[in-house]
């Protein structure tokens, strides 16, 4: 079974068809690149898959589950990870805090068990340990205390990978991963 699949995915902007009945499947454990010139529809296709744009027709499936009616946030919670062409980070926060917040969003935070000072402290420690592990894996450990705005663009792109890793998606989608 394909991990990610689109069936007859179509979008129309007025009388213009920007994507016409795109059917494609992506197998588990594979790396696939979608290439084409500027204006060919690559970002539009990503936006349709992630739910940023509403399709005029067709469907998106993740491990057999139809995600077509879901909002972008629900698609992300279902296991569809997306990094955008422009970085989407908290520039004034430290690198570690950016990743810790993503880990917390994935885990549900302290509120899932009610307000309890011990669970808040314990959760914070666990979330921080997970964030630190991810930063080591993407070679940003040395920059963990730096404000994101001070990072070179390449390190900001690595931080986006770390944020996706924190969300533990089944599929990682990168729009223009080598841009700028």
Termini Cα gap = 35 Å
Class computed from helices, strands and strand pairing: alpha+beta
Radius of gyration using CA atoms only? 18 Å
Question: What's the pLDDT, averaged over the residues?
Answer: 88
Read across the widest sheet, the strand sequence of neighbours is: 2-1-3-4
Shape: globular
Keywords:
180 residues; alpha+beta; 4-stranded antiparallel sheet; 5 helices
Could you give a quick summary of the protein structure above?
It is built from five helices and six strands, in the order ββαββαβαααβ.
Give a written overview of the molecule.
- With 180 residues, the protein is of the alpha+beta class.
- Helices cover 36% and strands 21% of the residues.
- It has five helices and six strands.
- A four-stranded antiparallel sheet has the order 2-1-3-4, covered by helices on one side.
- Helix 3 crosses helix 4 (117-137), helix 3 (95-107) runs parallel beside helix 5 and helix 4 packs across helix 5.
- It is globular, with a radius of gyration of 18 Å.
- The chain starts with a strand and ends in a 6-residue tail after the last strand.
């Amino acid at each position: 079974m394909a991990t990610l699949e689109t069936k007859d995915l179509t979008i129309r902007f007025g009388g213009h068809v920007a994507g016409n009945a795109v059917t494609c499947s992506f197998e588990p454990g594979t790396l696939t690149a979608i290439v084409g010139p500027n204006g060919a529809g690559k970002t539009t296709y990503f936006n349709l898959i992630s739910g940023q744009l509403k399709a005029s027709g067709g469907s998106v499936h993740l491990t057999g589950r139809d995600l077509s009616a879901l909002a972008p946030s629900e698609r992300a919670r279902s296991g569809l990870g997306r990094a955008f062409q422009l970085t989407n980070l908290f520039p004034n926060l430290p690198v570690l805090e950016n990743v810790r917040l993503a880990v917390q969003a994935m885990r549900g935070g302290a509120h899932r068990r009610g307000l309890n000072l011990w669970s808040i402290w314990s959760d914070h420690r666990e979330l921080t340990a997970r964030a630190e592990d991810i930063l080591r894996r993407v070679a940003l450990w040395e920059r963990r205390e730096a404000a994101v705005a001070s990072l070179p663009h390449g390190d900001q792109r690595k931080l986006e990978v770390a944020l996706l890793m924190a969300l533990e998606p089944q599929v990682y989608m990168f729009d223009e991963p080598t841009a700028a």
